Amino acid sequence: DSLLLEAGFLAVLVAPLHLLKWRSTAWRPHDSVTFWLVRWLLFRLMFASGVVKLTSRCPTWWGLTALTYHYETQCIPTPAAWFAHQLPVWFQKFSVVATYVIEIAIPLLFFAPICRLRLFAFYSQVLLQVLIILTGNYNFFNMLTIVLAFSLLDEEHVGRWLGHSKRRHASSESPAWPPSLRSFLSTLLELSTYALLLYWSVQSFGLEINWEKRLLDSKVAFTYHEFKMWLQAVTLPLVGLGFLSLSWEILSALYRCACVRGCFWKLWAMLQWAVFTTATVGMFAISLVPFTYIDRESNDKLWPGIHQMFGAVERFQVVNSYGLFRRMTGVGGRPEVVLEGSYDKQSWT
């Protein structure tokens, strides 16, 4: 419900405002600024959900055994959950590792300057949500998360889905060789990112193939204290990363406003840019308070004015803290309500 409230409020900023009916408002120069807030919400949701699983000190999350219980003890499992529960333990543990990677490491790619990295992050998040939908009933939550993930896409990629992508000339369809320096550096950075992600996963979770038993061994290769130190070290830099990403969107939108034709429409675009940028920066600022709940020391280092701003709007729940499945439930067995009735007080049904 908190996620629905926050996403609903962001929709007020993202949705087109048709004040001037005689002027098409299908595209606005500042759209990328307000839409960035959706991406920031998705980042806070996923990153915090991965972090709290470890900060809770839940033995099943630390032992990578959470999914050996989850499919059986969740509130409303689907028929597919029975089949998922029958999977071997080594695969269940690897699934927990994949969950950590998708929720903690991959969200950093939401702000990557390379489109393909953002697409990789998009499909990773959608894959996780689809698997959850197949094995559990969580109402609109997973569908809403997928909708938020669309903030990682660009118009060109969506156009390919819809068959609206522009066809290039035959001469341009063949790749140019040698590739440009920008293309080479982009590919190199992309491959380096994948390699670093794989290396981090192997080192952090002790991934090792057991050829004799034909299974994949995995274990958490760090301590709680080490994780807390890491979290303390990265929380404020992540805030800085978000600020740099937002600043880029703001400056890019300002440039697009300057490119609008006509003096009046240029001023109109600049006015909208100023209003929506102010609202976006304000939303980003107050969201830092619930985001930094994952590390109290980082939360205490925030400017006191930000805490005052958050306190003024806290009751409206326009920004919230998140942390899904902080502790695995039903480890000791799920309590069941049993109703019995009898007509003769002798035989009970």
Automatic annotation (TrEMBL):
Organism from which the protein derives: Stercorarius parasiticus
Family: Belongs to the lipase maturation factor family.
Localization terms from the record: Endoplasmic reticulum membrane
Superkingdom of the organism of origin: Eukaryota
Function, as annotated: Involved in the maturation of specific proteins in the endoplasmic reticulum.
Residues spanning the membrane: 94-114, 126-153, 230-251, 271-294
GO aspect biological process, one term: protein maturation
CC per GO annotation: endoplasmic reticulum membrane
InterPro entries to which the protein is assigned, alphabetical: LMF, LMF1/2_N
UniProt-listed Pfam families: LMF1
Domain Lipase maturation factor 1/2 N-terminal: 1-158
Keywords: Endoplasmic reticulum, Membrane, Transmembrane, Transmembrane helix
Membrane topology: Multi-pass membrane protein
Protein name, UniProt field: Lipase maturation factor
